[in-house]
Structures are given as C-alpha cells and as structure tokens.
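Worked example

This section walks through a single chain of length 147. The input is the sequence exactly as stored; nothing has been trimmed or padded.
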Amino acid sequence: MTEKAKVACPRCGATNAFPLEAAEAGKKVVCGRCRTPLPAPGSVLEPSEEDLITLFQKSGLPILVDFYSLSCAPCLMMHPILERLAKRRAGEIMVVRVNTDRIPRLAAQFGIQAVPTFVILSRGSERGRTSGAMQEADFSLWVASRS
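Given that input, the structure is written out below as tokens.
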C-alpha cells in the first residue's frame, strides 16, 4: 500500500491524498477536482494572490502564512526553519510565503505592520499570529499549539 499525505490544491483548495512515492520519483500529481498540478507534501509555496485567497478560504488543512520581505534579515533567517517545519509537518499543515513587497494589498488586508509575521489560518479563520524571528523549537511549539 502506498503511503499518502494530505495536500491542499493551491488553485481550488480541495484536499487531496498525495502518494509519497510519486514525490520521491518526481512524478506530477494533479488535483482530483480541478486537475491543477499539486505541490509535493512538505513544500513551502509562494502562490499567486488569487490562489492564496482561495487557499485561505477553502483549504481543509491549516495554513501557516509567512509574511516576509527580501530586505528583512530576520525574515531570511526564518526561511530554513519554515522549510524544515514544512517537511516535518507534511500532510498536517500547508506552509506559504507572502512577499509583502510583491503583494502589499494582501499584507494590508491582514494588517501586517512588521515582518516577519506568521499567521495560522483554518478555513479562513485566524487561529494565531506572532511577529519576529524565533528559535526553531519555540516556533515549532507555537505552530503546534495553534494548528
């Protein structure tokens, strides 16, 4: 039997069972609903603004959102921590990044005043928010307590 992990489609938000052996083999897996290629479990995504809004509202998995800027040193320090967290929690949570310089309207909609700011969403509702760089263990505990 093939081991699978849950992945939300970035286009329509549908939750799909992604066969892990397909990811290891580099095979393309598509959404069962809209046929959009799915990201491999454990990926950190940077979807378009339109796809982010759909994902935020319709994903069956909690979403950890990293609002960041490329000119922010603490933001860049957190990127490897987010990547490791995404891999550890594959199938349990989706991790997305929002570049506040590229998508300022979405950052404003969320009231982002400092970066990095991390928000955990579940079906469009905010479950937690924190700002600033953190130690990996503290950050992982914060995410686990809210997802």
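What to look for: The domain at 40-146 is CATH 3.40.30.10 (Glutaredoxin).
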